[in-house]
Amino acid sequence: MKMGKICNWIFYVIVCFITLSLTSCASDDNGNDASGVLAPVAQEATDISLTSFKANWDNVFRASEYVLDVSTTNDFSSFVDGFNNLSINQLSQSVTGLMSNTTYYYRVRAVVSGVISGNSNIVSAETNTEFPDDITLKSATENNFFVGVAVSEARTNISSYDEIYMREFSSITAENDMKMASIFTGIDNTGAIIYDWSKVDALVDYAETNNLNVHGHTLIWHRSLPQALENFSGTDQEFEDLIEQYITDVLTRYQGKINSWDVVNEAIDDDPNVQWRDTVFLQRMGEDYVEKCFAFARAADPDIKLFYNDYNMTFDATKRGKVLDLVDQLLLENIIDGVGYQMHIDYNFPSTQQIQDATDELVAKDVLIHFAELDVKVNAANDLTELTEERAMAQSQRVKEVVEIFNAIPQSKKYAITVWGLKDDDTWLIPENNGRPEWPLLFDDSFDKKSSYQGFLEGL
Ligand code: G3I
How would you write the pLDDT of the chain (460 residues) with one tens digit per residue? Predict the structure, then answer.
């Protein structure tokens, strides 16, 4: 009796083994073919957004990798760029840079010991039509870092702007209103600076009322020079005293209200062989003028976070080296807290790796990091007369990469990402300045979110 039971079990196991072997060898609905390798079972897409989804599939025993195809047609007669035969060594893959409100199809194959299975079942995924309204840039970044926007006093207290500033952003920076030429309007007969605080006061009040942080931009910049300093006939020492006075007055007036400032902007020369840009500050105050300005600012208020801000930092390694040397020097004196990498970039330049490497070099320094002045040009080649869906997607992908790189910075070093303007027709890159149209921001002319907005969220 006992022996009979054992025989039954052995018989049962043999039958199961033969059945399983036949199943895995035959060509069936899942596309298992003569390769002998079991095709994966593709699962429902997850994490669906306006421009992306995540394709998922089940494990195949001993598979070393999987191969994914994504198409807009279920006969896979063409493929989404970059998603034909894409090798992956995990059980899911984010498919990004897609069009909204579009149906995509995916299938996957398994590779076992170099042998590729047939295709899995085909899964369809439809990207979203609407932006999610339960998540905003501000809610998605809360407590991690500031998400800022460049504003002007003239574009506040206008409901269409206000609504988005409050909803999406946690910080503002004056695009122009806090520059020296706006505040320092002259010198009176006694030699004292004449100030116009009106726009700064208004912006600071606006921020306070609406619970927004203010990042000050910028105390010293050669392109925002008051006439009175340009034509200053006093001695170099008198010039320097005015700069000290100006920095001290601005910082103390807004003490506790503007907690961080770009102290000096763009002081390093673009010529690899020249350290300092030739400016009136250099001529009047000497090669240590940057150091002096930071020291004046620190002395005015030791609690204010002091930043150095410059452009082309992501791809010009020589210039970056000069800036990082300056940062080392200022750190030795404990007169700097942060560095702004201006992010005036293109949808296809610089490379993601360049941005990553430049960021890594900054992470190695003991400073807060600001991805400042973010805008992403899509029309540098002047090949567009309107923003195409394809270019908008490429822009979105770029914004996502930049945000991802920032988000991966150690928490204690993340200061802010600041977008350089709210909507495309507010950009400084208007055709009159730029010679061609551009659409570099996160909102379009009608205050509607663009794909680049979605890219920002996806990078988090
Ligand atoms: O407000 C006046 C207006 O009254 C006048 O009629 C008009 C005539 O030109 O000029 C208007 O001022 C312009 C101002 O932008 C406001 O639109 C200035 O001419 C123009 O020079 C100024 O450009 C600003 C530029 O800095 C120079 O200050 C841009 O908006 C601003 O985006 C840009 O920002 C800089 C950052 O501060 C530093 N990094 C580079 C970045 C881009 O250049």
Answer: 455 565 565 555 554 444 444 434 333 445 556 688 999 999 999 989 888 899 999 999 999 999 999 999 999 999 998 999 999 999 999 998 888 889 999 999 999 999 999 999 999 999 987 777 789 999 999 889 999 999 999 999 999 999 999 999 999 999 999 999 999 999 999 999 999 999 999 999 999 999 999 999 999 999 999 999 998 999 999 999 999 999 999 999 999 999 999 999 999 999 999 999 999 999 999 999 999 999 999 999 999 999 999 999 999 999 999 999 999 999 999 999 999 999 999 999 999 999 999 999 999 999 999 999 999 999 999 999 999 999 999 999 999 999 999 999 999 999 999 999 999 999 999 999 999 999 999 999 999 999 999 999 999 9
User: What positions carry a catalytic annotation?
Assistant: 266, 373
Residue ranges, CATH 2.60.40.10, the chain: 42-126
SS3 424: helix
Task: Report the nearest-CA residue for atom 12 of ligand 1.
Answer: 176
- Overall pTM > 0.70: yes
Delimit the CATH 3.20.20.80 region(s) of the chain. 137-459
DSSP 223-281: TS--HHHHT--S-HHHHHHHHHHHHHHHHHHTTTT--EEEEEES-B-SSTT-SB---HH
Ligand 1 contacts (CB < 6 A) are 175-176, 223-224, 265, 311, 342, 373, 428
Distance 428 CA to ligand 1 centre (A): 7
| Atom of ligand 1 lying closest to residue 150 CA | 32
- The letter for the amino acid at 12 is Y
Cα(442)–Cα(444) distance, integer angstroms: 7
| CATH fit for domain 42-126, picks 3.40.50.2300, 3.40.50.300, 2.60.40.10, 1.20.1260.10 | 2.60.40.10
Beta pairing, strands 115-116 & 146-151: unpaired
Q: What's the CA-to-centroid distance between 397 and ligand 1, angstroms?
A: 28
Architecture of domain 137-459: Alpha-Beta Barrel (3.20)
Q: Which of 149, 153, 175 to mutate to test the pocket of ligand 1 (most atoms within 8 A of CB)?
A: 175
Instruction: Enumerate residues 6+ apart whose C-beta is below 8 A from 248.
Output: 296, 299, 300
Q: What CA–CA distance (Å, rounded) separates 112 from 91?
A: 14
Residue 380 corresponds to which amino acid? A
